[in-house]
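Dock beta-D-glucopyranose; give full complex structure.
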Amino acid sequence: MKRIVALLMVVAVLLVGVGTAFAQRVDVGIVLPTKDEPRWLQDVARFEDVIAKTPYSVEVLFSQGSSAAEKTNVETLIARGAKVIIICAHDAAAAGIAVEMARDEGIAVISYDRLITDTEAVDYYVTFDSVAVGEAMGQYLVDNVEGKDNPLYLYAGALTDNNSFLFFQGAWNVLQPKIADGTFRIINSAQARNFAGIKDLSREQQAAIIGEITTDWDMNVAKSKAEAHLTAATAADKGVCYILAPNDGTARSIADVFAADPDVTAYYVTGQDAEKASVQYIIDGKQSMTVFKDTRVLATDAMNMAIEIIEGRTPQTDAFYFNQVIDVPSKQSPVIVVTKDNVKEALIDSEYYSASEFTGL
Ligand code: BGC
C-alpha cells in the first residue's frame, strides 16, 4: 500500500511538473517599461483584448524602469521558448544586450513604440509617427500665438528614450522658424537659444538641448524644473506662456505649476497619450491639447506582426527608422490631435473611453 501511495505521489509530482512546464511555454513575450505610468497600462489593456483572440500563448512582463529587470524578463522569455519578443525598452541603448541574447537564440525582436538603438538585433519596429507627434505639439503652439516676443518654455522626455529625440525634432521643425523670426522667445533653455538659428539639429545638438530640459518622463522632475524656471523668470518672461510639454503626465504637473503663478495670466501646454487624467484636464481647460495615439492599433499591429513571423510570413512595413546602426523596417501609425473641441468625437465616439469616465463633457 505504502509503495502504491509513493508511486501515485511520484506520478502526481511528474504531472504537475509537466503541467507547469506546459503552462509556462510562451509563443510571444511582451516586455513593457513600467506599470507606473498610465500610458503603458493603456497598452496592456489593449494587448489583453488582442491576446484573448489569438490561439498563441502570450506573456506580458514589466521592467519597472530597470534595464536589469528588463534583461531578466528577456531571459525568462527565452527560457520559456518564446519565438517572438515584443519589447518597449526602458533605456534604448541598454536594451541592446537583452535583445542580442534573444537574437542569439533565433528569436525575432520587435521594438514596440520605443526604438532600441545601437544594435543590429532588432528585426522590426512598430510605432506611431513620433516626429508627427512633436510637429502636432509645435503646430498647436504656433496656431495659438500672436505678435512677437511670446515666452516659450521647452520640456523634453528622457535622454535614454529615442522617442524624446523624435518628438523634439518634430516640435523644433515647426517652432524653430517662429523662434528665429521673434514670435517666440525661449525662456528656460540656454542650449536651445544657442542653436536657435539651426533648423536641422544634429543628434548631438538635440542631446545637448534635451539634456538641459529633460523631465526624465517623471512628473516630479517636471514639477521641480517648472518651479525652478518660474522662480528664475521675471514677470516679463511670464504673462501668456507657451509650453512644450512632452507627454500628458509631465504636462499636468507643469500646468499646475504655471497655473499657480500669479504672473502667468494664461498658458498653452501640449501633451500626448490621451491619458484619462489629461482628458479631464482638457475638458476642465487646464491642459490645452493632447496627441492621441490609439494603442488599440499599436497592440494589434505588433501582435499581427508576431503571428506573421511565427507563421513564416514576411510582415508588411511602411517606413524605416535608423537606430544609429541599421535602418529598421517599421510599421508606423498616424496620430490625432485632441483639444476641447473634438475630445468627444476622438475619444468617446471612437469608444476608446466611455463618457461616464469624465465629468463636464
Ligand atoms: C512614449 C510616450 C510616453 C513616454 C513616457 C514614450 O516613449 O512614446 O507615449 O508618454 O514614453 O512613458
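Observed: DSSP finds 13 helices and 13 strands in the chain.
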